[in-house]
Amino acid sequence: MAMDYGRAETRDARRPHRVPAVLRAPLEGRTWREFLHHLLSLPIAVVAFSYAVTMTTAGVGMLITFVGVPVLAAALVGVRAVGAVERARARALLGMEISEPEPVRARNGRRGLLPWTGALLKSGVSWRHLLYSVLLLPWSIATFTVSLVMWSVGWMLFLYPAYWWMYPTWWGQPGMQLYGDDSTHNADFFLDNPFEIGVTCAAGLLVVLATPWVIRGLAYGDRLLVAGLLGPSRLAERVWELEEDRGVVVDTAAADLRRIERDLHDGAQARLVALAMDLGLAKEKLEEDPEAAARMVDEAHGEVKLALQELRDLARGIHPAILTDRGLGPALSALAARCTVAVRAEVDLPARPAAAIEGIAYFTVSELLQNISKHSEARNARVDVWRSADRLMLQVWDDGKGGATTTGGSGLAGLAERLGSVDGLLVVHSPQGGPTTVTAELPWRG
């Protein structure tokens, strides 16, 4: 799917560094982007809060008349626009991968301003945007104040040795005044000797090193706020996921039907047509040349055997009888016996899963073994099947050359989509040089 709900990804590559993270954090781009996000939050929050509160209270107050409805709708339109800006800002400065929420749609596909306004007022997304616009102000005041004060004070103290000379030269005092009493200057305390200047610099360094982690902690709160209130709801994401899965299932079924039609047309059907023609010729020659007719019938008998074998292979490709009658263990053992690579199959299942899951598991192993035979250059392979809680686990291993991947429109990519259509998962570990381990996970649904 488009996003993992609430997950924020930073754009800083996670490479090993010689410099410890605590020392490089003040200079990293991530820190400065998040700091800029905190600085921009306050002015945006003031505008969003003022608009949301003013328009909402005005709309609610005028609901006694019809005028309040469009005013309230305008408030929700405005806060949805704020949400669009905030999602863009979160992507740019916080590195978040967040999908757009579901658009406003009137029920039954009705068009017009009134149905759309009703859908807008009933939309939970719109009211979550309004809540975000209200909550952003107090949160942004805290993040703006904390991050700006710590950042400015930290660098001001850390760089104090570089500009200390300006105090006695230009401002007529021995150094930065830590505290003092205007009525009597005897209690004044200035940071003006080397020891005090060094301690000030060290204290500033500690604040500078700690500030990035405070900024990142505050940014984590921003991410939670954006993901929780401005992203699509979990229900909507699940609906979209099911719609995508349904499309994959439909495409897969259509591809299977085309394959069956092609196999029938090019294989058994063509043989049966040729067989009918041969039998017709044999019938004509039966009285004139019985020996030739007998030879033609014998050849036709061979064609019948080949056509029957092709039909059996085709039926096995649709759903093997051994899988229906005896289950996944014997079916995979028979599948391993037909593979061109030496395969050891071990199935440890306490019971049989749902028939649909059993079929998908069978064809998953079948396709993986075909890939091993065609592409891996392996000598040995192993198939393991077991149950883990409410999941059916498959693992296919081979000692081939490796390099298998689920990207680039490969057969494994299609297999991963097929498994995903039933809430399954496919994980491929195949370094160059091998070995390759493909692990599939399916719901049990027994």
pLDDT averaged over residues: 79
Strand percentage lies at 5-15%
Q: Summarize the helix and strand pattern as letters.
A: HHHHHHHEEHHHHHEHEEHEE
Largest sheet: 5 strands, mixed
> Number of folding domains?
3
Shape: elongated
Q: Helicity range of the residues?
A: 55-70%
* Structural Rg: 36 Å
Kindly summarize this structure in a few lines:
With 446 residues, this protein is α+β, with helices and mostly antiparallel strands.
Characterise the protein shown here.
With 446 residues, this protein is of the alpha+beta class. The chain folds into 3 domains: 21-158 and 208-232, no CATH class; 236-318, Single alpha-helices involved in coiled-coils or other helix-helix interfaces; 326-443, Histidine kinase-like ATPase, C-terminal domain (Heat Shock Protein 90), CATH 3.30.565.10. It is 65% helix and 10% strand. The protein is built from 14 helices and 7 strands. It has a 5-stranded mixed beta sheet, with helices on one face. It has a two-stranded antiparallel sheet with strand order 1-2. α13 links the parallel β3 (342-348) and β4. α9 (234-288) runs antiparallel to α10 (290-318).
